[in-house]
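Batch manifest, entry 17 of 40.
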Amino acid sequence: MYLSGGTVAEAARQVGQDTFVATAAQRFAQRFGVPAGTQEVHSWSRSWPALTRALCAAGLESLHLLLEYSLPATGERIDALVVGEDTDGRMCTVVIELKQWTRAHLTSARPGMVRVGRRTVVHPAC
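Output type: structure tokens
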């Protein structure tokens, strides 16, 4: 289950539309059974255009992009899943977890953790 799916190029066009995030918030409530939080919706409006710009700048417009993808059997969601094929035609996926941190510091005392402001959290790549 996901909120939006299509090529990166399609997503880049859609996230530029004024109604896209509001429609995604409505779809979130329908699909996940709870309303999206205000901070999450605000994050989408900032993160999704930046993500699609970066993917387009890298020449990845033809790849498939799923936004707010729900992992099967876990209930956990990831911000974005990029799906495509490698040069041998094998399917490849990349999980993207978006963060809007202005600063983060690795902590040597707690491997796999990162200090963000006053909080210590699991590093998004772990």
